[in-house]
Amino acid sequence: MPRGPSNGETAPSFQVPRNPILSIEHPCIVKNVEKAVDMLGGPAEIVQSLESGLEKPLGLKFQPEDPSSRAVLSYNKPTNNVLLKVTVPKRTGRKRRRGFDEQFSEDSGESHPRKDVKYLLHSLTDNRERCEVEVVGQIGSTHVWRTMPDFTYSSKGSSFLGEVQSKVLPQQYPLLKQWSFPRSSPKEDTEVVPPPVLSTQNLPANFTYCQETAADSMVEQHSVNRRTDESVVHSTS
Q1: Is residue 120 part of a domain?
Q2: What range(s) does the Transcription factor IIIC subunit Tfc1/Sfc1 triple barrel domain occupy (predicted)?
Q3: Which residue, 15, 41, 67, 166, has fewest beta-carbon neighbours within 10 Å?
């Protein structure tokens, strides 16, 4: 049986706060957090997913400003992770030559790099003794996207569909009063309303090759003779 430390020391324990936390693996490269939240339906949809015991998926729209675009549903996977808050000293933008005690100089031409994983790991390496780690809470579920989005019908240049999207689809009565059905002739400016679903293929197609069940196996005659000759040689030797 494993024994504990001889000096009586034990590993430190930390209290995990009971904060409702939701993890989202966004399928896009997020450069604008507000736009990424709007693609998920806004803060109201995310708050509903934070309720305990609710396995509601999140719908992601690549064009949230278009009411006719279909949403891609997520998979709500149960997880048991912990969210940590790591604080490192803020960069001042000043620099000096390594190994010299001269005064720091302001670097006005320094560009602010994107804080990706490589940048964060480099910052943690440079501030091993000056970083602070805090437990924020437990992550009980993670939303991931594994299905394919539907095609989008382009309504650019269509006056009829433009009026429908701006005045009918928002479902607001003042805008609906401004819309009237076009009275043009069927032979002039005739447009077809796109279907609500353009593709029913949600998962990528599996292109695995397999043998046809109705196919018959055939053996060539020269291969049979070759096998017979080999058996004769082995028997005579």
Answers
A1: yes
A2: 23-154
A3: 15
